[in-house]
Sequence to fold (275 residues):
Amino acid sequence: AKKAGRNTFCLFSQEMESALHFRTGLENDLRRAIENGEFSLHYQPQRDQAGRLIGVEALARWHSPFRGPVSPGLFIPVAEASGLILPLGHWVFEQACRQSVRWNRSDNGNRPPVVIAVNVSALQLRQPDFVQDILRTIEETGAQATHLKLELTESAMVEDVQATIDKMLELKRHGLTLALDDFGTGYSSLSLLKRLPLDQLKIDQSFVRELLATPSDVAIARSIIALADALGLEVIAEGVETREQQQFLAALGCTRYQGYLFGKPVPAEQFDGSY
Ligand code: C2E
Ligand code: CA
Ligand code: CA
Ligand code: CA
Fold:
């Protein structure tokens, strides 16, 4: 590797430089965007078989004044690599708490409470004061812990498992619920899954996308649903775009859905009334 070092460096330097340039540019803009409050949240419905609302997922949106809308697929990885996900993630959770208070006011009639699911990055969960920060934000906003769900990823589970489990247990003791996001795309073992105090598994949309054409995806979806059942966990399918996919999933025993078929992510104002 050393011998090729010089040539390799020359070969890749331009690409590396532009990649670095892009990332540094985005990172700087992102830092300023957090200070300037250029973010908002969209909410995507989660529905049961009958189409009834069972919850919403909060999804971060960045509208840069000079870049225009920037996809979370682009800025979340940069936020995670730079640590900016810590202030951004705090902001997202606080906004979700405030929205939860608005949606769940006692004068909202007899509607069942709306549970808002919030994405949490591995780096956030790894902070020693993560649980404290979550609980303080809930208290300060007057939200109810039972109206909030955290979506964690498998990558957040592999390091220091016991410390992670302790945090999860404390969150649950206070009434929050926990989902494992993008399930099936990571590396967590079944024995680890058994130890995690989860409430819900989310079937990743990559398995849903080609469900009707790919037998292995059917096998995976079927296994996840059976596994969730065996472990006493709820299961929800993500990225459901067609009636055929939904019917197929229903035949496998799935009863909870999220995806364009059931509603796209929209600003909170567009949500009221769409129960
Ligand atoms: P995710 O958590 O897996 O969120 C689901 C993504 O799938 C969202 O993309 C959503 O808009 C999209 N989606 C929903 N239904 C459908 C469908 O039927 N078809 C297709 N093709 N896509 C669908 P989005 O909003 O672009 O977010 C991408 C990822 O960025 C999220 O994936 C999540 O990992 C991350 N992200 C977004 N907001 C936050 C946040 O506040 N904090 C953290 N840590 N990550 C976030
Ligand atoms: Ca998610
Ligand atoms: Ca997901
Ligand atoms: Ca995903």
Notes: The radius of gyration is 20 Å. The CA atoms of residues 31 and 102 lie 29 Å apart. Residues 1-5 have pLDDT under 50 and may be disordered.
